[in-house]
Amino acid sequence: MIVEKKLGKSTQAIHAGESHLSALEKSGIPLLPPIYQNSTFRFTTAAECAEAFRDEESGYVYTRWGNPTQDVLEKKLAVLEAGEAALATASGMGAVSTALLTALADGGHVVAMANLYSATFQILNEDLRQFGIETTFVDVTDLTQIERAIKMDTKVLYLESPTNPLLKLIDLRGAAEVAKAHGLISIIDNTFATPCGQQPINFGIDVVVHSMTKYLSGTGAVIAGAVIGEKEFVTRVKKGALRNFGAVISPFNAWLTLQGITTLPIRFARHCENAGQVAEFLEAHPAVAWVRYPGLQSHPQYELARRQMEAFGGMITFELKGGRTAGEHLVDRLERCALAVSLGDVRTLICHPASTTHSHVPSEIRQQIGITDGLVRISVGLEDIEDILSDLKQALESCAS
Ligand SMILES: Cc1ncc(COP(=O)(O)O)c(C=O)c1O
Question: Are 145 and 138 in contact (CB under 8 A)?
Fold first, then answer.
């Protein structure tokens, strides 16, 4: 692990976590990690079986508890996110919910970023409230707002950066310091940035969660998630909320995600390159009111983006001058860019958050946090840039006519 952490990201993405495979084979180590597509594991003696129950590190028992294919993925994730340990889950929300349930096992209060992925907002605002866990939502781009929201029983600081869909950034080092000073567990959803864009643990954040449905798997074939952090925390998630509530990744989805991760650094570089060009094109277009992209100088936190991000990502948010009608017209006219929720796919995906991903967030809260009705979100894919731009150009021209 220590040696793997010194490797470049592309080498890590391809090789990390796979070295123990040799011990599983008598001869001929499989070049690709195999899929252990089985629910249970057989023992030869009662003593061996009892030992596996006593010491889980000694062997595999049942796939809801652990599986060799999941293991390879988890070892790779820990290396890529610079964490001690990682856990793969059945979905991004499986990761968010099990991390929160573990951090809040004794109850307590949460301080969270006001602009979050909608299902995470619902967990905090509705589901956890049913169990007496309250959340105060604040604009964490201003760190003093965290301090002001902290109460006697606050246990967790929950973050996203860049946020979905407004692409606001949080000063990761500053937020981690505030959390540490008050004894809070800091959790960040790093789905938009990926470990190629930023490694929050290196800034002092305690726990990273991912929707691996997005960039990490990359082809839109999988729903999957991950929790990464200190071994003690990850083990508590694994042996408690994950195992018992059951949001366990299937070996096949773990394997598909592994294949995706091997090309993450190279894909992410191309996502960023294409997105930079799309952002500049949109910013110069007369039909566009404004564009948010962390790599644009016009982003209010451009300096922070340069300081803490290694690459600015593939997500862009923009507003058309013609508001909701123009936004709907645009997505109707696009031919190559697909009208679809989700992100981080090889294909360019475009969506309208107010009527889709954030439609469950009450309208007044949407307006308050800046998710206007005319806002459009684009996940720039890996197609040739000329083809993405020409599709956007023809659709935007038809908006103006
Ligand atoms: C930032 C973010 N976190 C979490 C999720 C949830 O992931 P999943 O759909 O894999 O459960 C999403 C889904 O879009 C997301 O955008």
Answer: yes
Which residue out of 115, 166, 211, 360 has the highest number of ligand 1 atoms within 8 Å of its CB and is therefore the one to mutate? 211
Q: Answer whether 228's CB lies under 8 Å from 83's CB.
A: yes
Q: In this structure, which topology does domain 2-261 adopt according to CATH?
A: Aspartate Aminotransferase; domain 2 (3.40.640)
Assess whether pLDDT exceeds 70 at residue 348: yes
Cβ of residue 187 lying under 6 Å from some atom of ligand 1: no
Q: Ligand 1 atom 15: the closest Cα is on which residue?
A: 117
Going by their DSSP bridges, the two strands 349-351 and 288-292 should be labelled as unpaired
Closest atom, ligand 1, to C-alpha of 225: 10
Specify the ligand 1 atom closest to the Cα of 94: 11
Query: How high is the mean pLDDT of the chain?
Result: 93
- Quick check: helix, strand or coil at residue 208? strand
Beta partners for residue 87, in sequence order = 227
Which CATH number is correct for 264-400, 3.40.50.2020, 1.10.10.10, 3.30.470.30, 3.90.1150.10?
3.90.1150.10
Which of 164, 248, 349, 356 most suits a substitution to test ligand 1, by most atoms within 8 Å of the C-beta? 164
pTM more than 0.90: yes
* Contact in structure between 348 and 380 (CB atoms under 8 Å): yes
120, 122, 64, 66: which is closest to 245 by C-alpha?
A: 64
User: Closest residue (by CA) to atom 9 of ligand 1?
Assistant: 92
Residue nearest to atom 2 of ligand 1 (CA): 117
- Strands of the sheet containing 288-292, edge to edge, are 288-292, 315-320, 375-379, 349-351, 338-339
Q: Within 13 Å of residue 161, how many CA atoms lie on the same side as its CB?
A: 32
To the nearest 10 degrees (0 to 180), the angle between helices 385-400 and 264-283 is: 30
Minimum CA distance residue for ligand 1 atom 11 = 92
pLDDT digits (tens, 9 = 90+) for 286-326: 999 999 999 999 999 999 999 999 999 999 999 999 888 88
The first and second tokens of residue 31, run together, are: 């070049």
Domain ranges for the chain: 2-261, 264-400
pLDDT at 25: 63
CA–CA distances in Å: residue 262 to residues 8, 175, 274: 12, 31, 20
